[in-house]
Amino acid sequence: MPHEIDDRFKEECGVFGVFLNNPEKDTDAASTAYFGLYALQHRGQESAGIAVSDGHQIKLQKSMGLVSDVIKQEDIKDLKGNIAIAHVRYSTTGESGIVNAQPMVFHYLQGMVGLAHNGNLTNTVELRKQLATYGSIFQTTSDTELVANLLARYSQDQLEDALAKCMIDLKGAFALIIITEDRLVGVRDTMGIRPLCLGKFQDGYVLASENAAMDTIGATLIRDVEPGEIVVIDKDGVRSIQGAVSPRKAHCVFEYIYFARPDSTLDGINVYQARRELGKQLARESNFDVDMVIPVPDSGTPAALGYAEEAGLPFQDGLMKNRYVGRTFIQPTQSMRELSIRLKLNAVDKIVAGKRLVMIDDSIVRGTTSKKIVEMLRDAGAKEVHMAVSSPPTRFPCYYGIDTSRREELIASTMDVEEIRRFIGADSLHYLSIEGMFEAMGGNAKNYCDACFSGSYPIGTESVKKKPVNE
């Protein structure tokens, strides 16, 4: 199995949908979905796909790879219609392969339906067994196929009613965008763990994981889809149905720390501003006697700017990122692993030599990348290298759509802060406290899921803990 060049968390996927009432060209929906999906590429790089309806049938183009590799100009010409959904994927539930790539398109009693899913269900074992008992046959290992089978089970009902029944059966995190011959539908899980928003575009509407994708195509954000809400878009406009209700919200706090684009605003909070406030709070909680602040680019940059501002320290780009390195894989040899981080980052010796540095990053997963960066800075002549992390120690796996399925892979689950400091080779190490994190986020801790830090899961996880690898 190849190894990636860093040990960052991986988000499962991004979803996008568009409904156009009066497209100028019959490929406008597909083109719009392409650019919207391109803006969500950071959410998944394993596979990509677009499904388009022309009012009679749904056509699909998907494959393994990046958006620009999968969707070509000749594909856009063939994807004619005024409704489109699109998906980028990084696998968590289900193996990495074309059979699990999305959108997935099915025939059922009501006609054709296509699904694009962001998130992870926690009761797939029970659902798969239950549906198989009723005669369902599965061709993939993706939990998205379970949703399609549930829809088929309730196919005597109208789509909105069938979805409302599905929401009772589904446990876990999901943001779904669904296409039929004549409708675009968005569904968000009852706690709002995974993001989904609604926007206005020309004579139609869009749905997306992040509003940054709407900005890219020139759409205007209307609002976030509410937890438990079903949004139906057709030729008559937008209708909202409350499919299910939860006593609490549980927005994923890691979306603000790392996953989402900094120019996105999720559930009323701008991601860039949140990261800058996290950096300021980190500065209040730590006390380093250093010469300058440097970020681990790019996700650590807003927090580092906030840290420098609050601490009254100079901010410098002591590490430069190679922006042409995408999802590069390397052979699992020790020599290549030693060099891998330098494909992405390089220390600027003229800036860091002889200096006492505090390096800001958003998280430490396995610690291997942090260790290499500290070594790199020391090789470049840094006098001291301290590290501050703008999130608490990640000690627990996520079962809601982030690739941290094995707790033993998380360094903070087996080492305390001092042991991690020694492992990465820093002169000192400081994590943001959970309390400080929520203070920076506005103090409303009950509205967020922080299970990866606290181990307090908002939805039961016993079933998903029993799932075999790649299931």
Quickly give the structural class.
Answer: alpha+beta
Mean pLDDT: 89
Report the C-alpha radius of gyration, rounded: 22 Å
Give the total of beta strands. 25
| Tally of alpha and pi helices | 17
Residue share in helix: 25-40%
Contiguous runs where pLDDT drops below 50 for at least 5 residues: 1-6, 327-332, 466-471
CATH class of the largest domain: Alpha Beta
Shape: globular
The overall number of domains is: 2
Distance between the termini: 17 Å
Give the strand line-up of the largest sheet: 4-3-5-2-11-10-12
CATH-assigned fold name of the largest domain: Glutamine Phosphoribosylpyrophosphate, subunit 1, domain 1
Question: How would you describe this structure to a colleague?
Answer:
Helices cover 29% and strands 26% of the residues. The protein has 471 residues and is an alpha+beta fold. The protein has 2 domains: 3-247, Glutamine Phosphoribosylpyrophosphate, subunit 1, domain 1 (4-Layer Sandwich); 272-443 and 453-459, Rossmann fold. The strands form 7 sheets. Strands 4-3-5-2-11-10-12 form a 7-stranded antiparallel sheet. It has a 6-stranded antiparallel sheet with strand order 6-7-8-9-13-14, with helices on one face. A hairpin with a 4-residue loop joins strand 8 and strand 9. Helix 9 (271-285) packs across helix 15 (434-440). The longest helix has 15 residues, at 271-285. The radius of gyration is 22 Å and the shape is globular. It starts with a strand and ends in a 6-residue tail after the last helix.
